[in-house]
Records
---
Amino acid sequence: MSPTASAEQAGAVAGTSGAVPAIATSGLRKTYGTRVALHDLTLTVPAGEVFGFLGPNGAGKTTAMKILLGLVRPSGGQALVFGRPPAEPAARRRVGYLPEHFRFQEWATGDELLDFHGRLAGLGAAERAARIPELLERVGLAGRGGERVRRYSKGMTQRLGLALAILHRPDLVLLDEPTSALDPVGRREVRELVRELAAAGVTVFLNSHLLTEVEAVCDRVAIVSQGRVVASGPLDDLAGAVTQLRVLLDRVDRPLLGLLGRHGQVARVEGTAVTLDVDTLDLAPNLARELVGAGYRLYGLVPVQRSLEDIFVDLVGEVREG
Amino acid sequence: MSSLVVARWTLLEARRRRLLAAGMALSGAFIVLFAVAFTLLYHAQQRDLVSGQGAVPPGGLDASTELLVMSTALVVLGLYGVQFLAVLLGLFLGVASVSPEIDSGALHAVLARPLSRLDYLLGRFFALAGLLTAYVVVMSSALLLTARVVAGYQPGNVPKVVGLMILQVFVLLAVSLLGSTVLPTLANGVVMLALFGLAWLGGIIGFIGTIPPGNELMANLGTAVSLLLPADAIWRGASFHVLPASLLAVQSFAGGVDFELPFASTTPIAPAMLAWSFAYPVACLALAVAAFRRRDL
């Protein structure tokens, strides 16, 4: 599966950037002293895609995002945003960003903050006047723009951050843990927002360790652990990369495990239920016949869809043990 | 263009954080205190001189010169107070200009915009420099006006006095802004106060070195410290222009009026030191931009 395979298609959807990917990094590396924060990150995010960047805390997700915004200088490798290095201010013109800790100048009001960022993003006075109330409404802060950010709750501040990220109708939005301070309703609203952005052809790069959130909105994901990408691809491919069969029998004995071992790898035995890693589900009918032929009573033979969480825990666990 | 947006934002911040209100209130109190003290002392001295008329000792000063010497000393001390306030203000504003925004994380969203770090720093610097300029102009004008109304006091060269005081504040603002891009806030504050204290001490050492018969080593030491931070040297240059032309004339005629203050100078700033004082803030800003560009946020 080539990460760039859908670039043209996605570009056509976005209609703006042709084949230039929204994000392209190669061999990106960041070290702080002897600590490696990011190790050889190579990935391409075609324009128009919703990309999930997954990993445990401290995996290097935020560092990667900051490099894409020119906030952190890479120690090696290259990063391009719409074909330009993000250290150039002009390269960031089409980019919106919600920082992980969503801290803003607390002495200012929400309106003032949006106005300041609107000016920096190059929006004209009329555009700001129209866009700011509309955005506050969109993120659920209607009527609260005149209050100082200091008085905002955490959730409100994060909503304000989302408004800032999409203020100038960017083509690429980088969201670093966008729902960390939100309640379930707020999380759902963010998912809807991301879907709306995607429908409008906006590329979304989402950092998260909340797997359900990523599963719900992302086209493609990369899983990082300890600064390395340990898996990447479309969500369905990742979930289908390893297939499991759950076999329910009247008994489990040594010959049974031998028989099962010829079809796949035994992952778990729980009572008289065996979970078997297999390459393909096509072998299920044959396996059933053999089991019955060998005198076992077969109560169930169920394909198991692995959740992203299972894959995540497996992969991250492997890296940690290694 | 972006730097103007940042400058405007910085001024809004100064207003919102009640920096302007607090600064104006306290500075107003300072001016009132000066006016009261100056008026009382001037009139007391005037009465003394009138009552003791004809008692001028041989080689002494006549009454009007004596009043002038006293007025000058008071004005120099008053302006010394103004520059001290302005310098501290410049230091605090510079120290608080960048690093607290980095520490709080508020800068991340700002610098992710199409805004260069150069524009950000320039916007910060020019807004704060503008505030400080206004502060120095208003405060020194109020003080000099008071002296003029009460005593008819005419300083040697008001634009040079005020101009040099502004230059001094720019030096402090630029160096503390440089510190703010490379050091944590508290560390920067400590370093800047120490540096300012050192420059002040260097000025005193240099002053003692010039007292006859003179001590070349001490004078050179004072100059060396001034190169490190030309704050006190610029103030001394400014203080020279506070002296009225008539007093300077008397001084050269009489072979030196007894007018020496450890915080002031009776000679103008050396041209080389003046050139260095102009180059200093520019160099600090250039270093700040270079350091800030390399900094990971």
Note: Chain B touches chain A at residues 2, 5, 9, 12-13, 16-17, 101, 104-106, 108-116, 119, 294, 296-297 (CB under 8 Å).
---
Amino acid sequence: MLTCKDASHLISENQERPLGFRERWGLKMHLWMCVSCRRFERQMILLRQALRMLGKRAEVVDDSTEFPPEARERIRKALAERGDQEHDHSH
Amino acid sequence: MNTNVLGSPDAWLDEHGAALYKYALVHTRDEHKAEEAVQETLLAALQARDRFYGGASARTWLIGILKHKIMDMFRHDAREVQLEDPDALEDTEDSLADENFAPSGRWRDKLSNWGNPEELLERGQFMVILQRCLDALPPRLARLFMLREVMEENSENICQELAITPTNLWTMLYRARLGLRQCLDRNWVGNAVTAARR
């Protein structure tokens, strides 16, 4: 019989690889009896959704993140230096 | 002379700088690393701009380069941490399992019901706490977890890039998930759900 610890491992690994027949069956039996592990499973699905949302949001520009002007200037300088070098090489 | 649709590097910085910085900051959770990643990205873009034909938008193209740069940083950091303290991580992780499970392998406490997932995701507060909890993970776990879940890199690539076995990866992802769940539950979700029911 699977313990909750075993079951939680399988629930996590199910997001990474297809479970074998015995694993799936064992997990199913455990989940049938265990409300905590059913909740764990739902929470893991939610976690994955939330993290993907975080990734998508990262690609949208809004006012929530300040691009520090000093950082911008440092990068501008670095770009200008590199640009000059390339210009020199082409001559 | 540059007649490329991309425009000048200065123009990239003005148009896409903030977006790239935000993306880098979300993934690295570190202002210095974010700045470094943006700079590396624009320098790489400068060198590679002849290979950009305008098929994708400039923003998409730059984000693509940025992803690689962040991956490089993670890989570099992962090696360093491994060299520094091979045992420290094991200890935190063992204590994590002990906190969650009794010796019998059962949960120490019955897990709380987080309620309706859609509602939870719509609340901005949930995302804020999620980020804080990501910050609280051991750095190596956090990076690995970001690669897998936020950048949606596939397991095979991660194993190859970081030179770890799939079993290793699964174990570390499990520990990250267990830690995050616990942090979310303690810091907000569990309490908020309980409060809402009172």
Note: Chain B has a mean pLDDT of 80.
